């Protein structure tokens, strides 16, 4: 898995923190890691973006960014309004492929959901993943609405012949409600892909050493962690949620 694409079912579902957790876990295993943010929006020229946040939390990763636009909009819209060149899927794939020649693992973080447009031609993160023939990790929310959004994302990946590596819950609540607990059981069923982790709510606010120490415990062995999906479900989804 030299390149892993990380997408979300929507914006604000925890993609960056999950990307940081995957990076931290790979670094702990002795692998070299690069993180590529395909297009950063809503951040000024001198402000840290998502790739820098991954580096802050995870440690010694190569943080890269293809383009940056000031307004918090879809990349194609933000590029048009800023009068700047958009990012195209082939550019994302080319940069990721180059990074893969120099690192053991390259994490490509998208913007928002899978089909958010990067350019006027309708290029998306899915197109970049197709060019790379890379698996795609889906980051989902825990609560109401996540089943539909996650299933649609996985269906789109499969329809394009792409490999949905699995689902990670980007922010598992400290006090989960009934919907959250039921979704632990239902997400693998409706998507047909495994649940590969659950990052606790507020993980991004941990100090970096604590984050790095904890990250492997949030991710399943397929992502090089030690998280046990069945044990987590048994603890967090008691009989009344089943």
Automatic annotation (TrEMBL):
Substrate binds at residue 41. Keywords: ATP-binding, Biotin biosynthesis, Cytoplasm, Ligase, Magnesium, Metal-binding, Nucleotide-binding. It comes from the Bacteria. Its EC number is 6.3.3.3. Pathway: Cofactor biosynthesis; biotin biosynthesis; biotin from 7,8-diaminononanoate: step 1/2. GO terms for molecular function: dethiobiotin synthase activity. The keyword Glycoprotein does not apply. It catalyses: (7R,8S)-7,8-diammoniononanoate + CO2 + ATP = (4R,5S)-dethiobiotin + ADP + phosphate + 3 H(+). It is found in: Cytoplasm. InterPro entries: DTB_synth_BioD (IPR004472), P-loop_NTPase (IPR027417). Its cofactor is Mg(2+). ATP binds at residues 12-17, 50, 109-112, 170-171, 201. The active site is at 37. Its main location: cytoplasm. Mg(2+) binds at residues 16, 50, 109. HAMAP family: BioD. Catalyzes a mechanistically unusual reaction, the ATP-dependent insertion of CO2 between the N7 and N8 nitrogen atoms of 7,8-diaminopelargonic acid (DAPA, also called 7,8-diammoniononanoate) to form a ureido ring. Homodimer. Belongs to the dethiobiotin synthetase family. This is ATP-dependent dethiobiotin synthetase BioD.
